[in-house]
Amino acid sequence: MSYNKFIMTMLEVKNLNIAFASDDEVLSVVKNVSFSLSKGKLLGIVGESGCGKSVTLMSVLRLLPKNALVNAEYINFNGQNLLNLTEENLQTVRGNKIALIPQDPLTSLNPLYTVGDQIMEVIMLHQKVDKKHARALAIEALRQVNIPEPDRRIDEYPHQFSGGMCQRVIIAMALSCHPDLIIADEPTTALDVTVQAQIMKLFKEIQQKMGTSIILVTHDLALISEVADEVIVMYSGEIAEQAPADVFFSNPKHPYSKGLLASLPKADEDRLCVIEGQPPSIRDRISGCKFHPRCPFAFDRCKAEAPVLEFSDGGHGVSCWLYVKR
Ligand SMILES: Nc1ncnc2c1ncn2[C@@H]1O[C@H](COP(=O)(O)OP(=O)(O)OP(=O)(O)O)[C@@H](O)[C@H]1O
Ligand SMILES: [Mg+2]
Fold first, then answer.
1. How confident is the model at residue 40 (pLDDT cuts 50, 70, 90)?
2. How confident is the model at residue 185 (pLDDT cuts 50, 70, 90)?
3. H-run or E-run covering 222
4. Residue nearest to atom 3 of ligand 1 (CA)
5. Domain shared by 303 and 221, yes or no
6. Residue that is last in its domain, among 195, 228, 261
7. Residues near ligand 1 with C-beta < 6 Å?
8. Last residue of one domain, picked from the residues 228, 258, 280
9. What's the confidence (pLDDT) of residue 242?
10. 1: pLDDT confidence band, cut at 50, 70 and 90?
11. Are residues 319 and 172 in the same domain?
């Protein structure tokens, strides 16, 4: 049983803490984050702006700037602790094994080169293939992301593609090296709502057809509700709730998650509920639970003591005093 768990777990992050140091202060931005992702699963990470989603992902690939202080028990990927790898070994993991689709990906295409040249460059950087072979692989990658007539469109420039199509090209680049894990940081923010949903469907298709594990980061719970197998809700640098997606969407527990879900537009209602107030800035020193100033259910203990993530049956974790019977 434990052996199975070992081979099935692709990524395991244990007690991750991140702070940024400047000349006169050290600000903590991520606290005690732990999660794991099984092979072939799709994890959605959700939370408001500034809650630490991007820095968490960047720390997995050790891509944070030098003033970042990263501390974790381990960040295991396929049984290897990424924290112990040399820069050279990390290079092989990045791109080859883990592909990152960064936030604001549309700026990562160069307008001066054809999409084919750009995908082929990535392929030739990571695989020992000649130009002809790389071109065939690039066409195949474009086909996998449902770009019609890939053998013709490969020679076009980014401006000849729509925003959604450019995003597909970027996903094709990520796929072209057959990574075990794709990390996509807000991959659809620049796109309109229908295209966002199509791109989400594409990620699901990739996961199902190729068995790729995927982490999708977004502000928008609705976007991942149809595709995620696991959900993590972050608030102010910490995990507020985490659960298998079916459990989470049928029985959200944390008042913040409930607020996020209530603020989603529903077909039969035109009034949107919003969570009152703003997420705290990293400089705000809030006692107890960081969410208590915005929480409609807060009581004395919430103001005094910080809750920790506690798990119940079925892997449903929630960090909230409402669920602690002590
Ligand atoms: N290089 C840096 N130096 C100092 N602080 C940083 C740095 N990068 C991020 N931060 C801070 O870390 C916190 C978390 O940032 P992060 O980018 O992870 O948020 P996010 O959840 O991805 O937000 P968004 O949804 O807006 O992308 C923020 O308060 C941010 O200002
Ligand atoms: Mg971000």
1. very high
2. very high
3. helix 221-225
4. 20
5. no
6. 228
7. 20, 29, 47, 49-55, 65, 103, 219, 282
8. 228
9. 97
10. very low
11. no
- Tell the residue number behind the tokens 């112990």, with chain if given: 84
Question: Taking a C-beta distance cutoff of 8 angstroms, is the pair 317, 323 a contact?
Answer: no
179 & 288 share domain: no
Q: 252 and 212 in one domain?
A: no
- Locate tokens 């972050």: which residue? 234
Q: Which two tokens stand for residue 300?
A: 């004395």
Entry pTM:
0.92
Q: Is the pLDDT of residue 238 over 90?
A: yes
Residue 178 and residue 273 in one domain = no
- Ligand 1 center from residue 237 Cα (angstroms): 9
pLDDT at 2: 47
Ligand 1 atom closest to 56 (CA): 18
Contact 114, 157 (CB under 8 A): yes
Q: Point out the ligand 1 atom lying closest to the alpha carbon of residue 18.
A: 12
Of 184, 236, 241, 234, give the one whose Cα is nearest residue 207. 184
Tens-place pLDDT, residues 291-318: 999 999 999 999 999 999 999 988 999 9
Return phi, psi of residue 48, to 5°: -70, 165
> What's the distance, CA 49 to chain centroid?
13
In this structure, the answer to whether residues 47 and 77 fall within a common structural domain is yes
Q: Which residues crowd ion ligand 2, with CB under 5 Å?
A: 54, 103
The alpha carbon of 158 and the centre of ligand 2 are apart by a number of angstroms equal to 24
